[in-house]
Amino acid sequence: LTAMECRVLSIQSHVVRGYVGNKSASFPLQLLGFEVDSINSVQFSNHTGYSHWKGQVLTADELHVLYEGIKLNNVHHYDYVLTGYTRDTSFLEMVVDIVQELKRANPNLVYVCDPVLGDHGSMYVPQNLYPVYKNKVVPVADIITPNQFEAELLTGKNISTEKDAVEVMDLLHAMGPDTVVITSSDLPSRLGDRFLVSLGSQRHVRPDGSRTTQRVRLEVPKVDAVFVGTGDLFAAMLLAWTHHYPTDLKTACEKTFSVMHHVIQRTISYAHELAGPGRRPSPPQLELRMVQSKADIEDPAIVTEATVIS
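Structure tokens predicted for Pyridoxal kinase:
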């Protein structure tokens, strides 16, 4: 299938102002030729990094009603499902039911999941989501994009060396997904402390039935700012570039991380310009410059190169 023939069901948050969740995922995927159907897990005025926000949260029952409507019209054939931040266990379990049903209809469907649990040693979703992710979501996922904390939490193993990270990715493969990208880690970068290390691993079945695994490492420049919506953009771009390079994780990661670099650099430059000399940019100033990054999303200049580690 070309991207033009691919349909994505994206079940994510929605904000009126800015780029988070479905807005972070849909626009870049559409630019790259994917048809995107969006279900808003929440509908907020803006992301929760602002001082104030208002809005509604979709319940599991309401999600089921929307899905039933799609099904009744027999337009529920999807090639990809994409999910991100969720706070409710029953909603997450309904997502799993939908993914399983869609996979029965299309066994080639790819489920891309950002298992949003927390970061830097602490959870920022309710604790009862953890067993649902571990026991129900990850086993039906094909591509997952945890950070180091989430990868450690899901496997029960700490990462302090590259060897640990490879073992954690293998444990995650054993749980279900064929593609695992640890988006950020605390491992020391070979390029110094202004870079962070990301790692990826992809399993393939050869025509003779034997398995092979490609693993990559990337050194990614750190940025001194808090962005919201970058995880959603990352998962969407990994979906797109693994579609175009299904057996070449190195290239897919280089394209994905390079898009991230261009969008973030454009955003931070603009934010500093607005904030003025010596002042920290505010949440509205740090909204991702997505429309302005159209050309970089469509054809990113490669600025982050991946190293194959095994």
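The chain has a mean pLDDT of 96.
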